[in-house]
Design goal:
Layout lengths: L4 E2 H8 L3 H9 L7 E2 L5 E3 L1 H15 L4 H8 L5 H33 L16 H15 L4 H12 L3 H23 L7 H14 L9 H11 L1 H10 L3 H16 L1
Antiparallel strand pairs: 1-3, 2-3
Helix pairs in contact: 3-4, 8-9, 9-12, 10-11, 10-12
Amino acid sequence: MGNGWSTAQVARMSNVTSRTLRHYDDIGLLRPAEVGRNGIRYYERDHLVRLQQILVLRDLGLGLEAISTIVNDGRDRVEQLRRHHQWLLQERDRYDRLARTVAATIEELEGGDIMRAEDMFTDFDPEKQARYEAELVESHGDDIVPHIAESKRRMAGWSKADGQRIQQEWASFGPRLVELIDAGATVDDPRVQAIIAEHYQWVCNFWTPNRDSYPGLGHTYAGHPDFRVQFDAQHPRLAEFLRDAMAAYARASL
């Protein structure tokens, strides 16, 4: 196939793993143009455009199910890309404003002019936070409201070091679970459950889930686009694997 690109070539160009490309094929999101006699998948230029669209939507926070709906809805692709482009420009501008806010804080900490307190929170998105809270109440009922209040109370007492530690701990869960997924571990494997036990204790930094609410958090991870984009970028099975592992932990330990 003279004008095509192999899976390995597409993976190198796009920084998407060959495993992810195979998964996209398996779920019908990105079929190759041809599969050679040696089993190698080949892609044409239209497939690269489609892959670019998939990656843009993924970076915008959408899960694979939502992405599949969008790219398969039959609408004009150019018009779709125009909308995505406009969205990206808006996000670029917002991140530029955030970067300037943080830069001003750095300058102050290094001995520059002191920022007004209200300026420290310029361009952060309280509406998004409010939307998250509303979604939690809608999904889990009014019983979640005390948990939200407790989470805010605990976070109010954090130091900068606490915040950095908690971010580092969060970042460690995905890679360790991906390693076990690739090794063929099941969700009730003791090695998996040891990581989930750490995750449960990590969640307790914010609030203390019970046998019902901890699996509910797992469903939120798997279903909410802001979480899915993080997990899908690491492994196409990670979100569901974490959800099921959390449910197994709740059954056995809560």
